[in-house]
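Private note to self, pasted from the team thread so I don't lose it. Backbone tokens:
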């Protein structure tokens, strides 16, 4: 069962918090900037995205469970990577975000 085009409600909720909570959004853009400037490896970028999803889940999600499932982690990371592609395209065309 999907929710608003995402894997489930929890994934949608976490991604919503990331884009609408200033601290989380700043973490996202910082990770994007570091990867864009090639200051981090793909492996470190993946860790940063995982940390961002975990932080959003622990501090903001209204689904109170101890851990995200592996599928939820993969879906969150995939969505954030898609956001990064859009960010990179915009940045390449227009300069800083």
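Design output:
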């Amino acid at each position: 069962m999907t929710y608003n085009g995402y894997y489930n409600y929890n994934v949608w909720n976490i991604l919503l918090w990331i884009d609408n909570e200033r601290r989380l959004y700043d973490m996202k853009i910082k990770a994007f900037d570091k990867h864009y400037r090639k200051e981090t490896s793909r492996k470190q970028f993946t860790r940063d995205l995982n940390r961002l999803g975990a932080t959003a889940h622990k501090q903001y999600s209204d689904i109170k469970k101890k851990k995200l499932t592996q599928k939820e982690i993969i879906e969150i990371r995939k969505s954030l990577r898609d956001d990064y592609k859009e960010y990179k395209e915009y940045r390449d065309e227009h300069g800083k975000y």
